[in-house]
Amino acid sequence: MKTAVTSKEEILKVSRELIREQGWSAISVRAVAAACGISVGCVYNYFDSKSDLVGATVESVWREIFHRADDGVAFQDTQTCIIWMYGRMEYGSERYPGFFTLHSYGFMQQDKPDGKRRMHQAWQHVLDSLRDVIRRDANVRTDAFTDRFTVEQFADVLFSLMLSALLRQDYDPGPVLEIIRRTLY
């Protein structure tokens, strides 16, 4: 007999699996409840609405895709970090086909404040991590940044290139690594 799912994280895990197996249209409170082996009311104990469930699921997908490894190796320098991030983008694209395009198009084109907020939180986390890596990178030339060209601005450019790569489904970090080599080292 299947064990009933009883926590918010377990519900989100089942929601992610439904997306992987059946696509985004599979997410409804009723479908998630059935897949979890719980009542619809139990889902509503954790999520106020379908919109809340979908938003939390989107946020959990972002967390899964960009979850940091415990060893911290991916964040030892800027180039290694970019290689890791592009690899995670490819992982996300394979695991959740169409997620990046659907998510950014769906939440940016419609008035969905919670979805936009969650997306920006996930993006801000990635951007903050990138800024921290650049600041700590011992390989960066001491004259690479000035008052007119800051770490924050460079990280923003790299992040914009990543977002563009996501939409194009181009997971080759080579051109970005060349920009880093020519600008920072």
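That was protein one. Protein two is written in the same sequence-then-structure order:
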Amino acid sequence: MNIFSSLITGRIVATLSALAVIGIGCGAGVWQLNRAQQKIQLSDSLAARFALPVLNANTENLSLEVATERRIVAQGRFLPDQAVWLENRPRPIPASGSNTAQAGFYLMMPLSLDDQNRVLWVNRGWAPRNNENRVQLPPISTPETAVVIEGVGFPHPGRVYALGEQDGPITQPRIEQNFDLAKEATRHNWVQLPFILRESKADSSDGLVRNWPSPTNGVDRHYAYAFQWFALALCGFLFWLISGLIQYKRQRKDFGDEVER
């Protein structure tokens, strides 16, 4: 019996199982490396766009393409009665000494731009939720006078998995899973800019957290996961190879004993 037939043709099930483990491990490892590379590229893109001049939402007609990942300043008055609380959002950066992100809300609030008949939706920041009473909102403060908001433009505030669409009647407070700019424009029948502004100015006095993580946050974790998946693939191969060699040596020994007899 040759080594090829002993390792492969004589162990079809074991060989197919090993190939499955190796394929899954290598595929998942490559996917994790790609995710890390995507985050690095996004960080480089943001850094390049951050270096560009600050845009003004009050004086410039900004499109989504122009505003995305650009620093933007806007002046106007908040419309707190139309606020939307996006739930199941983790704290942007976990509190010091904590390994897990606390659940909470993103506060989406429309800003009526001064001297214009247009609205800009602002992601004002994160606030913790009440774990015992979902509809009891965290205490935050909203200026009644005109404010100047500084932030970065994005197509949306981020999405989470939701079962079905939430198209029922509006209730107060508005607690939603996701945010849809187009639906908000239709619902309120107002003219709004085609992007959201993620406020970046730190101001703990309003009760909101805005220490947004870097796009490269989690890159080290992706590399660690990739190592684990590649290690799994290697272990699967080594187990298949070593067990096959042991079986091959045993068969050679048995075959030699039969020849002597």
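Residues 93 and 99 are 10 Å apart (CA to CA). Keep this in mind for the problem set.
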